[in-house]
Specification:
By secondary structure, this protein is an alpha+beta fold. The chain has one domain: K homology (KH) domain (GMP Synthetase, Chain A, domain 3, 2-Layer Sandwich), CATH 3.30.300.20. It has a three-stranded mixed sheet, sandwiched between helices.
Length: 141
């Protein structure tokens, strides 16, 4: 039997491996989705509990508002969108909340019974930033 030379087909690694950042996969809620009412209820529940959690964990150096919750199909994933004022502290707050994801999952599990906690992620709400810019008076700049 003839041996194959696999080493000649391997390419040298030039860059170190870095994993991609966590981004949950969301499927759009379709009109014929049998879970759409359940997903909406769970989204509302997550919104309320996330607001409580942020209020408890916040150090009151910035105003953090939970604006929207996007729930994936069958509520396996949930993306919690927030706004932060002042805006220069936004990325620090998002990093803080991403570190607290496990604690938030436990907090959610203790508050809500008979619902499997989804995989949570926090991010800035891009739509709210544009609304704030529209409201801000031009003479204050």
């Amino acid at each position: 039997m003839k041996e194959k030379n696999y080493k000649s087909k391997l390419k040298p690694v030039t860059e170190p491996y870095s994993p991609a950042p966590f981004k949950p996969v969301f499927t759009p809620v379709l009109e014929n989705n049998p879970y759409k009412h359940r997903d909406a209820k769970i989204g509302s529940l997550i919104h309320e509990i996330a607001s409580e959690f942020v209020q408890i964990e916040s150090n009151y150096q910035s105003l953090i508002t939970v604006t929207r919750v996007l729930v994936g199909e069958k509520a396996h994933t949930a993306l919690i969108l927030i706004t932060v004022l002042p805006e220069d502290k936004a990325h620090g707050v998002v990093d803080f909340l991403k570190r607290k994801r496990g604690e938030f999952r436990d907090y959610f599990g203790n508050k809500v019974r008979n619902v499997r906690p989804p995989t949570f992620d926090f991010d800035l709400d891009p739509g709210e930033h544009n609304k704030i810019e529209d409201i801000k008076p031009k003479n204050l700049e």
